[in-house]
Design brief:
Order of helices and strands: HHHEHEEEHHEEHHEEEHHHEHEEHEE
GO molecular function, one term: ATP binding
Strand content: 15-25%
Membrane topology: Multi-pass membrane protein
Number of helices: 13
CATH class of the largest domain: Alpha Beta
Low-confidence stretches: 363-368, 474-478, 521-529
Catalytic activity: ATP + protein L-histidine = ADP + protein N-phospho-L-histidine
EC number: 2.7.13.3
Largest sheet: 5 strands, antiparallel
Structural class: alpha+beta
Number of domains: 3
Shape: rod-shaped
Number of strands: 14
Strand order of the largest sheet: 6-5-9-8-7
CATH architecture of the largest domain: 2-Layer Sandwich
Pfam families: HATPase_c (PF02518), sCache_3_2 (PF17203), SPOB_a (PF14689)
CATH topology of the largest domain: Heat Shock Protein 90
């Protein structure tokens, strides 16, 4: 049976408990050593002070120098009085030969001391922990000098080691209680930290968290849409490869958001979605604010590439325009045939012949036959004419229009011309000059196509009409037509620009589309006045 590993919270708590216990044990041991050393030094100095006071007693040095050891002598009685008063273990007075003149045990008087007297006899004061006839004790030894300063013996005072141990036990007991309390507080803190850690990680283990992160990354990277998350402080927290590919400015996860991203975050509503032009791509941007407990955690942006869908929409629009134009032409052709049939039925051959000549010289737009030879352009013009007619706007084809060749890039050309016509028709329909009109001129120059679109509207009131999102109407998806037209024209090395205003006209837009036509006869071109 495989043993289940300990959970992270348990491991963290046990590790902290072990660390706290080791630190507490080390601290207690160190405190014990320091306290013992301090107490021993304190008792050694106490013994030394007693020995000094004994050595300074008047007449003691002379009695040792001239008298003999006597258990009932004055030296013994004086030393015992001091010992009893100070609670010392012993007070020993010895001559220069080390013979005792006093001792706690009178039987040892007259015998040589049990410890080395060379230090005091050499004139030094000595403190030490030594074992003698009465056991282990803290000792202080001083030289015994006569009135002339000559050393005639030593005074040795000892304090029993049991007193040191008793004092140390009291202090260590207090230190032990403090250490136990500190250890308990540390263990309690470790347990609280373990519970908090478990709560913050939702009870998941590191391996589970790592697996969860890998799964989330795999899910985000597997979605076709780009995902970009920016926290409340403006730092990028998530940026998938798809999102990075759609943005024009490089991003660093954990770094500040770029100006491009900040522009996408301007709308602070909880959930918004709209089209944006990022570089050469049309992108659907969805913003979602993230909140928890009333606290703003940031914003999540979902970026979806709309370029391919936009290309399909433009292709469908071009196809639909051509289909509508062909349907309109077929309907018109049927009506004209009915009219011709009526003239012939009435026997009016002359008028029938004139009517036929008129039919062969005109197109559905009213342009001379052959002026616009490309079916895409012809169909788009016919379709936009029908749309404009429903809005009460007349579309006029310029007299200098001449496009004999075929389009090699019909989708891009329809994008530019279609957007320019849509804007012009809307401007003419809502302008102050009524009835509204739109004038369009197309001229081929070798493989280049020049486009001129003017309208009867009120002119351009926006500072930069080519900026993505710039529109006089506050509606989602507005303000991209001219930006798309400009982007498409520049993709072919051309341009779209706003022409100078002229009296009686609203906006005038001029576009150049290099290389969109099959080779044809070169013609010079100038915009109509």
């Amino acid at each position: 049976m495989t043993r289940r590993p300990l959970r992270l919270a348990t491991q963290t708590m046990l590790l902290q408990v072990v660390v706290i216990a080791v630190v507490a044990a080390a601290g207690f041991t160190l405190a014990t050593l320091l306290l013992r050393q301090e107490i021993e030094q304190e008792y050694e100095q106490r013994a030394l002070a007693i020995a000094r006071s004994v050595a300074e007693q008047p007449g003691l040095a002379e009695r040792v120098a001239t008298g003999a050891p006597d258990p009932d002598g004055e030296v013994q009685r004086s030393a015992e009085r001091v010992r009893a008063a100070t609670d010392a273990l012993f007070v020993v007075v010895a001559d220069v030969r080390g013979i005792r003149y006093s001792h706690t045990d009178p039987a040892l008087i007259g015998k040589v001391v049990s410890t080395d007297p060379s230090g005091p006899l050499a004139g030094k004061e000595v403190v030490t922990i030594e074992r003698g006839t009465l056991g282990l004790s803290a000792r202080g030894k001083v030289p015994l000098r006569n009135s002339s300063g000559a050393i005639v013996g030593e005074v040795s005072v000892g304090i029993h080691a049991d007193e040191i141990s008793d004092r140390l036990d009291v202090l260590l007991r207090a230190a032990g209680i403090f250490t136990t309390i500190a250890l308990g507080v540390g263990v309690g803190g470790a347990a609280l930290l373990a519970v908090r850690l478990k709560r913050r990680t939702l009870g998941l283990e590191p391996t589970e968290l790592a697996d969860l992160v890998r799964e989330q990354v795999a899910v985000l990277e597997g979605v076709r849409d780009g995902v970009l998350a920016v926290d409340a402080a403006g730092r990028v927290s998530v940026c998938t490869a798809q999102a990075a590919a759609l943005l024009t400015e490089p991003l660093t996860v954990g770094g500040p958001a770029t100006a491009e991203v900040l522009a996408l975050l301007e709308d602070r509503s909880p959930l918004t979605s709209g089209l944006r032009l990022l570089g050469e791509q049309v992108v659907v941007v969805t913003r979602r604010r993230v909140e928890r407990g009333g606290q703003d955690l940031g914003t999540v942006l979902t970026l979806r590439d709309h370029t391919n869908l936009d290309d399909l929409a433009r292709e469908l629009e071009a196809t639909r325009a051509l289909t509508d134009a062909l349907r309109a032409q077929a309907h018109e052709h049927t009506n004209r045939l009915h009219a011709l049939d009526g003239l012939l039925h009435l026997g009016d051959v002359g008028r029938a012949q004139a009517y036929l000549r008129e039919l062969t010289a005109t197109t559905a737009l009213g342009a001379p036959e052959g002026r616009v030879g490309d079916p895409y352009l012809d169909g788009l013009l016919a379709a936009k004419t029908a749309v404009a007619s429903e809005a009460g706007v007349t579309v006029r084809l310029g007299e200098d229009t001449w496009v004999p060749g075929q389009l090699t890039s019909p989708l891009d050309t329809v994008t530019v011309l279609g957007n320019l016509l849509d804007n012009a028709i809307r401007a003419a329909a809502t302008g102050a000059r009524q009835p509204g009109w739109v004038e369009v001129s197309l001229l081929a120059e070798d493989r280049d196509l020049h486009v001129y679109v003017a309208d009867s509207g009120d002119g351009v009131t926006i500072a930069d009409p080519f900026e993505a999102g710039a529109s006089t109407k506050d509606e989602p998806g507005r303000g991209l037509g001219l930006a798309l037209a400009l982007r498409t024209a520049r993709h072919h090395g051309g341009d779209v620009r706003l022409g100078p205003a002229t009296p009686g006209r609203g906006a005038v837009f001029v576009a150049e589309l290099p290389g969109v036509l099959s080779p044809a006869t070169a013609l010079s071109w100038e915009a109509p006045a």
